[in-house]
Amino acid sequence: MKKVFVTGGAGFIGSHLCEALLSEGHSVSAIDDLSTGRLQNVAHLQSNCRFHLEIGSILDLRLLDAMVRSADVVFHLAASVGVQRIIELPVDTIETNVLGSHNVLTLAARYSKLCLLASTSEVYGKSNKYPFTEEDDVVYGPTTKNRWSYACSKAIDEFLALAYYQEKSLPVIIARLFNTTGPRQTGRYGMVLPRFVDQALRGEPITVFGDGTQSRCFADVRDVVRALLLLVEQPTAVGQVFNIGNPEEISILELARLVRGLSHSDSTIQLIPYDEAYQPGFEDMQRRVPCLRKLSHLTGFEPKISLRELVSSVIESRRRELTESEELSLTDGLRSQAQPVGVAE
Which residues of the chain are under the pLDDT cut of 70? Predict the structure, then answer.
C-alpha cells in the first residue's frame, strides 16, 4: 500500500482518481480549495478511513509541505480550468497554475517524491498538425487575448517540471489530457458535454459555439485515470511527456446531435458566434486529436470506452442527479408547508 497525495482531489478528475486509488488499497490524502471542485464529488469516500480531504489552496506552501512530505506519490491535478473561468478570472488562472505548480514541484523535489503533473492538450495551441505528438511545436495567439493564458501557464508548468527533473533529479511525469469528461463533470465553466446534456434534459436549446465544424476527441475519465495509474508504475516514464485521451473524433455539431438523440430530447440546436459566447476576437482551434503511440508503446494503454458509451453514461448520471435534486426540493417544500403556524403571545 502506498500513501498518495492528490491536489484537486475533490475535482472532477481528482475525485475519480481518489476513488480508483482507494479501490487499489492505497491511502489517499487530498487538497482542494473548492473553486471548481465539489464536496459532493467525494462524499461517498469520506467514510473511508484511508481517505482525508483538506480544504485549502496549493498556494499555501506550509499546508502543502506536510502533505507532500508524508506521501509516496504526488498527483498534481489542481488548476484553474474551463474556458469561461479563464476568460473571467485570468489572474487567478495564471497564479494558480504557475505559482501553485511551483509550490508542488518545489516540495516534491525537496522530499524526492514521484510527481505526476496533469497538463493539457491546450498547450498545443493553434497548431494545425494532426494528430498531435508530444514533440510537436506549439502555436499561441497574442498576449492581448487572455484566452491563451491557460495554455501558456500549463506550458510553463511543463517547462518547470522538466527543469526540476534535469537540474534537481525530481522524478516527474507529465500527462497531457485531451478533453476528459464523464460523470461528475459540470458545464459551469464551459465544459461542452455536460452543458449539452443539461440543456437536452431540460428541453432547452443546445447551444453550439462557433459554426460547430470544430472537432474534438473526448476521453472517458475512467480510461484517463487508468492511464495515469499505469504511468506512475513505469520507471522509464519519468522525465517524459505523454498524451492521454481517445482519438475518436467528432465535430461539436455532431456531438450536439448525438446528445439530443441519446437523451431522447426535443431540444433545438442553436449556433452562437464565439464573440457572443465568450468575448470579441475569441480564437479557437479547429481540431484537437491526440497521438497515443508513445503512451501505448510504454504501458499498453488503449481506450476501452467509446464516445457513444461515454455520452450515455453522462446522460444517465446527470438524469439521476436532476431527479434527486427535484425530489429533494419537493421534500423540502412539503416540510415547509407542514410547519405549524406560530401563535403570537
Answer: 326-345
Burial category of 190 from C-beta neighbours within 10 Å (exposed 0-12, middle 13-18, buried 19 and up) = middle
Instruction: Please provide the average confidence, as pLDDT, over all residues in the chain.
Output: 92
Overall size of the chain counted in residues: 345
Q: What is the pLDDT of residues 13-32, one digit of tens each?
A: 999 999 999 999 999 999 99
N-terminal to C-terminal alpha carbon distance within the chain: 64
Cα 311 to Cα 19, 177, 191, 307, 317: the distances in Å are 21, 18, 13, 6, 10
Count CB neighbours of 266 within 10 A.
8
CA distances from 82 to 4, 61, 88, 114, 147 (A): 26, 25, 10, 27, 10
pLDDT digits (tens, 9 = 90+) for 110-140: 999 999 999 999 999 998 888 999 999 999 9
Element (H, E) at 54: strand 51-55
Given the residues 124, 150, 165, 189, the one annotated as active site: 150
**Residue 257 one-letter amino acid:** R
pLDDT tens digits along 222-254: 999 999 999 999 999 999 999 999 999 999 999
Amino acid at 330: L
- The helix (H) or strand (E) run that includes residue 67 is helix 61-69
pLDDT of residue 343: 36
- Tell me whether residue 114 is exposed, middle or buried, using C-beta atoms within 10 angstroms of its C-beta: 0 to 12, 13 to 18, 19 or more: buried
Can you tell me the distance from the alpha carbon of 277 to that of 185, in angstroms, rounded to the nearest whole number? 20
| Strands 241-244 and 206-209, bridge-based pairing | unpaired
**CB 6 within 8 Å of CB 14:** yes
**Is 150 known to be catalytic?**
yes
